[in-house]
From TrEMBL:
It comes from Candidatus Protofrankia datiscae. This is Lipoprotein. Keywords: Signal. The keyword Flavoprotein does not apply. The keyword Aminoacyl-tRNA synthetase does not apply. The lineage of its organism: Bacteria, Bacillati, Actinomycetota, Actinomycetes, Frankiales. InterPro entries: LpqE-like, PCuAC_sf.
């Protein structure tokens, strides 16, 4: 029996190439015209910062907002310290005043997420119209950590939220860690 190594190698390469092309073609069929990858998604520009043991994440002003009106500052604050801290003031040169959120205490090792539902820190008495795409300086002042000023973008409020401040109906939940039973093998 004669062996022809060149033919065997060529046949193996042909089978591998055909399998690869067939797999790619068939996987594209599974996506369909209603695939998640074909749906539009919005991107929200946010900024982050820190002062002392407080980390500020995903900060943006919910807009647009009219001159004379109020604008909520959507944000997440995390306290990495060993002592409780508190948000005592939010201010900007784009507003005549600011209101700290009703639930402003940051417990050690915890955090608070503020969405545009009336519970967020709020800039009051805007002295100019805030349009989506602009950025304004916003100063966050904490009782122990001090102050930090961030150049915060104005972005549309998340779906289901409102750019206009309203009275909060419940306390803001505190994020917590959840144990996972999944383990990598």
């Amino acid at each position: 029996m004669s062996h022809r190594p060149g033919v065997r190698t060529a046949t193996a390469l042909l089978v591998a190439a055909t399998s690869l092309i067939g797999t790619a073609a068939l996987s594209a069929c599974a996506a369909g015209s209603d695939a998640l990858t074909s749906q539009a998604r919005t991107t929200t520009n946010t900024v982050s910062g820190a002062v002392g043991t407080i980390a500020l994440r995903n900060v943006y002003v919910a807009g647009p907002a009219a001159r004379g009106g109020d604008a909520q500052v959507v944000s997440a604050f995390f306290n990495g310290g060993a002592q409780e801290d508190q948000i005592i003031q939010v201010s900007s040169d784009a507003a005549n005043g600011g209101a700290a959120p009703a639930s402003s205490v940051l417990k050690p090792g915890g955090g608070v997420i503020y969405i545009a539902n009336g519970s967020a820190p709020t800039l009051t008495g805007l002295n100019r119209e805030l349009l989506v795409g602009q950025a304004i300086p916003v100063t966050f002042t904490f009782a122990k950590a001090g102050s930090v000023t961030l150049n915060v973008p104005v972005e549309p409020a998340a779906p289901g939220a409102s750019a206009q401040a309203t009275a909060a109906t419940s306390a803001t939940p505190t994020p917590r860690a959840v144990a996972s039973t999944d383990r990598a093998h």
